Each structure stands twice: as C-alpha cells, then as structure tokens.
Model the fold of this input.
Amino acid sequence: MDSASLPLLAAGPSLQAPLAWRGGQALSRQRYLHDVQALAAQLPDAGPVLAMTADRYRFALALGAALLRGQSGLLPPNHTPDMIERLRALFPHAYVLGETGAATLALPTHAFIDTAHDTAPETPLPMPLIAADHLVAQVLTSGSTGQPMPHGKRWDLLVANIRAEAGRIAEQMGRADLHGVTIVGTVPAHHMYGFESTVLIALLGGAAFAAERPFFPGDIAQTLASVPRPRVLVTTPFHLKALIEAGIPLPPVDLTLCATAPLSPQLAARAESALGGPLMEIYGCTEAGQVATRRTTAGPEWQTFPGLQLSGDGDQAVVSGSHVPEPTRLADVLEVLGPTRFRLLGRSNDLINVAGKRSSLAHLNYHLNSIPGVRDGAFWLPPETATEDVVRLVALVVAPELNRAALLAALRQRVDAAFLPRRILWVDELPRDPTGKLPAARLADTATRLLAGSRHG
Done:
C-alpha cells in the first residue's frame, strides 16, 4: 500500500463480515464495496455531495462513492432553505444524493441506486485507496455571525482519530478490537458525532452499524433487539434520559457511548443499571475532532486519546498531537490536571454573572435536569435592558407532574439563590435538534416568544 494513501475499509474483518444490519439482515463489507462502485459510476463529475437520507448504510454509500470520485461529503448543521443557499454559495458544484420521491432542495438532485433486491456479490473487488491528504468531509458550524464555517477533514487524520476511538471503546468493553461489534445510533450520520461514532467507526474501526436511526424509546429497543451482541448504543443525554424513563424492557447493551452535553453521574448510573453495561462519554469539537473519554460513574476526570496533549488551563486550554496536528484552542473551560487529564467545567461562552455571582448555564442545567420529575429543562439569561438593574434567569421546563413551588424548592437545595429563575416557562418540549443539542438561538427565540405571549395574554 502506498504510504500516501489509506484503504476505504479497515484491515482485519473479513469482507464477508457485516458492515451494516438493516431489518435484522446483514449487509457484508464486500456488498458495500460493490454498491459503492456502482453508485460512484452514476455521480456527477464534481461535488461535494449532500446525502439526504436517514438510512445509515446509504449515507455510508454516498460517502464511499464520493471518495472514489475524488469528492467530499457535506455535513451541515441543518438542512434549512437558508443553509442550502449558503452551501450553494460556498460550494458551487454541490449536489444532493437523496431518496426517490423525497422533497427537493435548491440543489441539483440525484437518487440513490436501489440495490435492496440484488443478490449478494461473489466476486471480490480490490480495496479502494484514498489519498491521505484528501478532504473527505466538509463539516459546517455556525459562527458568531451565523455564517456557516466549513472545516475540511483529511482522510489520514480521520483514520488516526477513529483508530484511537476504536481502541478506547474496545478497551472499555474488555476486547482486543471491535470486530463483531454492532453499533446502534440514535444520532444522525450527518452530524460530526454520528459521522465519527456510527459510520466511520464501522468503515475504519472494524465494527458494523444498524442502518436504522431509531428515535423513540420503543424503536430504540426494537432496533437493539434486531442486531447481534455485542452491542454499542451511541446516543445523547436527551435521548438516553427519555429511553430510561420510558420504563420499557430493554435488550442488554454491552457499552453505551454518550456525547453532545455533559451527563450527570446519576443518569449514567441509571443507564448502566437499565442497560447492563458500562457507559462512556466522549468529548470533542468540530475543530479538533474527538479528544477524550471518561466513564462517568468512575469520576469527573477525562482522559485524552493516545498522542493528544493538553496545555494551558481554564478558557485557554489547547489540544495538539496525533490527529490534531495544529494546536487547537477548545471552546470550553477546562481544569487541566496534566497533559492527558482534565475536568470539564463548562462552555466558555455560557459563563454568567448574576448579582455579582458567577456560574455557568451548563452547571445550572445539570442541576435542573437532576430534579425528579423534570423530563427536560434549560436556563436562559435574557439580554440586559436599561430598565433592569439585575437581569434574572428564565427557566424553560418540561415537567408536567411538578408545580412552581416544588421546582423552586428542589432548585434551592442545589444552586445559589441568585440563580433561581424569576420566570418558569412550562413547555411540552424544548426546541432541540436531531442530536439532542439545544442551539442557543432556538432557545432564545422560544423563550422570547413565550414571554411576549404571556405579557400580551
């Protein structure tokens, strides 16, 4: 193999081994290579490609086919008309690969090839090699101006990243590798967390994944039961809490991987008890990729992946090494305990000062969501006005069994009185995105609208 190129699929598992499971049926790694080659022949000459599908196998097909054509995959934070227009401006040759009959977007659109009824291929194909420095994915985030900021992801750095993640997951499971392990993800493949920990972990880490993306607790349980053990559930605190509180019988899960927001040790302990296996959190960011993990019930310390080092402290913490070749400042406040160990204190942009006292919204949300009866909740700090000397917090809460007095009494046991919310907005749900994240702009819009409605009503 040329040192300047790396294979599309990790060495180790047989090509007859599953890469994916759909409806309880295995789709082999060899089948994937044949499907990728067939799809690549149908793609336009230029990209990148935006895969519009909830099927994880088809998303992986779009990625592989694009790589065979020397193109990249697009991973935007959402698919709103405004975002699509911005993608057109950033990437003039971008196109959509979507399901037949799906709603059209303002981009050239092509349909996936239907291979569901094809017989299993018998002829082995040579393993595709991808240039090490090829930008295989353009991951977009919204900056402070609201403009999407593209971050190109190189193939060799993604390979190093996923190898480190696969090793850490295997170590936590007491295994030598992830061969034979099946991933069930509640997170979409087009978000960085789902991209790395459900799609790439199969392509590059030796695991397989369920093609489905279950959302509701019953669907998650059904999908878990449809794939063989050992099983790994890749999820978020929001999805995990809903699953545990549903009270339904759950198939055993050999490891739960959680990300997008810090998880309380209480919920982690409940999850380990309900699912029968350890829970591991993963910490990372779009700019640096995956950085560290912790077993939440073992304590608050995070351990970086091999080859990564930390420097600085507080809101000046920097990570470098391995798949982060350029020192990258992290957007969180860290207590750096050593080059490879830290505690996560909160987002650098969510530190607040109320009546001369400091805290973070992440810290307050943690305590709000630890209250029995709170299904979901978040604090919001309104912008300062000339009419108020002290801006007071607002809480948006999903807790149909609680009243204001009970909620405030529970909060008083957990947080300083300065951070008790002046207004509590009772809602049916919070405006979370498909990964369970709660974008600040969405929260602010919802709170502002509800407050305006209560004043006018």
Summary: The mean pLDDT is 89. The first strand starts at residue 5 and ends at 7.
